[in-house]
Amino acid sequence: MAGLSLEGKRLLITGVLTKGSIAYTVAERAQEQGAQVVLTGFGRTRRMTERAAGRLPDPPDVLELDVNSASDLEALTGELRDRWGGVDGALHAIAFAPGDALGGNFMSAPPESAEVAFRTSAYSFKALAEALLPLMDGGGSLVGMDFDATKAWPIYDWMGVAKAALESVNRYLARDLGERNVRVNLVSAGPVETPAAQGIPGFETLAGLWEKQAPLGWDTSDPGPVADAVLFLLSDLARGITGEILHVDGGFHAMGAPLKS
């Protein structure tokens, strides 16, 4: 059996803010495996993405993409068609919830904030898939970043609800895109110290749970295990997998009571 290779793959990577982003490590290792990579950025944070891109082995272009903007999605399709003629895979590493929908504000969060969390964190996976589908005539792989939505976590609130919706969107996309040989999967990661995590009030509370319960242990400063799982799902080694949620969390999700006092 051949080892993991992304030689010649054309990959769109969203979600790179800094070198500490999981998506950055995905992009870095994808390039090392021979893939062509393009990043996306948005608004004022695009400059951060461009700085991070400059640190990659082969600094890629950064395309403007607000996943809630129909015009940005349409422009993305055109730009990638002109650049590559097609796309082989993409990482959806996009999530957002307003501050009043997190940090213990579940009951008080206004509906508008819940709607923003859903649209940006869940519906956008479908929106991105729709934009890329015309470029995937030969099939491809879509991977989204998840956080286990089977439980009610401290402080996660409406983002947790949005992740539950993302998991459902994943299944429906797998159903509808399978006939086009497009695979759709999620990686449910343990907590990693990323720029996005810094925006979650009380993130340390979540991270501390892994110290007690992950049987393999868990290093919140190391995005490598999560990135490697994403690369596997983007590769042809995962050609028979779709509609899956791959947990990369040191085994935390499989445990009951904490293993350590």
Tell me about this structure:
By secondary structure, the protein is of the alpha/beta class. It has one domain (10-245): 3-Layer(aba) Sandwich (Rossmann fold), CATH 3.40.50. The protein has eight helices and seven strands. Strands 3-2-1-4-5-6-7 form a seven-stranded parallel beta sheet, sandwiched between helices. Helix 5 (157-177) links the parallel strand 5 and strand 6. The radius of gyration is 18 Å and the shape is globular. The termini are far apart. 44% of the residues are buried.
**What is the distance, rounded to the nearest whole angstrom, between the alpha carbons of the first and last residues?**
43 Å
Number of strands: 7
Q: Mean pLDDT, as a whole number?
A: 93
Proportion of β residues? Answer: 5-15%
Query: Mind telling me the C-alpha Rg?
Result: 18 Å
For the biggest sheet, the summary is: 7 strands, parallel
Low-confidence segments, given as residue ranges, are none
Q: Any idea how many domains? A: 1
CATH class: Alpha Beta
Which shape, going by the Cα principal axes?
Answer: globular
Element-by-element helix/strand order: EHEHEHEHEHEHHHE
